[in-house]
Request: fold
Amino acid sequence: MDETRKPTLIASVQRALHLMEAVASHPSGAPAKQLARESGLPLATTYHLLRTLAHEGYAMRLPDGVWVLGDRVQSLHGRSRTQQLLAHVRPTLVALRDELGVACYFGMHVDDEIRLIDIADGPRAPRVDVWVGFDEAAHATALGKCMLSQLDEERRRDYLSRHPLVDLTPHTITEPGRLLGALSSPEGLSLDLEEYALGTGCAAVPVTDATGTAVGALAISCRPGKLPRIEKSADRMRARAAELQRTLTLTAAS
Reply:
């Protein structure tokens, strides 16, 4: 087999992509004739491609006749940024998973909500069954409690007013006063003692940005009997959290 042969390329896809690049190069928009010249395409082909892109939401014709990028391009860009973040975060989670033999989780504050960003697990380190979204069960998870502890009192009470303290297991804390008291951890290590799921314990440490402001949390899950050993390995979790802090700084700067 000839390993050096060129891959099969779809000419129509290439033309559409080159046309989108031409559209993107004009922040104020450009007419179809100009886009055709710059893309090296026949005018008729340009019109057909523009109409197709407009139908799919990737291009838009303004009232004065010029063409600009459509709303779906921005949507793709936002998803691309998320994928870039995952590509940088995942190696740290995998490394901690392999060090401690546990499933690892990373969450962040996003638009005043607590979001689970990524999980690294495996056959020997299975993840907890996420039967209730972490964003709706912050009070019952180490990840969520760690992130709630990062909020000031006003934002914390606002969050809890919008997210009822649902009883998930017999160990779930459902009293606001008791929960607020449990958020204070002198070691900076938040714990979930079978509060989210029976048979599972969790621990979490804060993740900060370049200014030292807490923006998320790094967490692990394991069998409850293994949790004391994990607590003794908290320094490893903090070291990996510091790696994530550098990752977030570099990703934001790129």
Observations:
- Strands lie at 59-61, 67-69, 103-110, 113-120, 190-193, 201-208, 214-222.
- The first helix runs from residue 11 to 24.
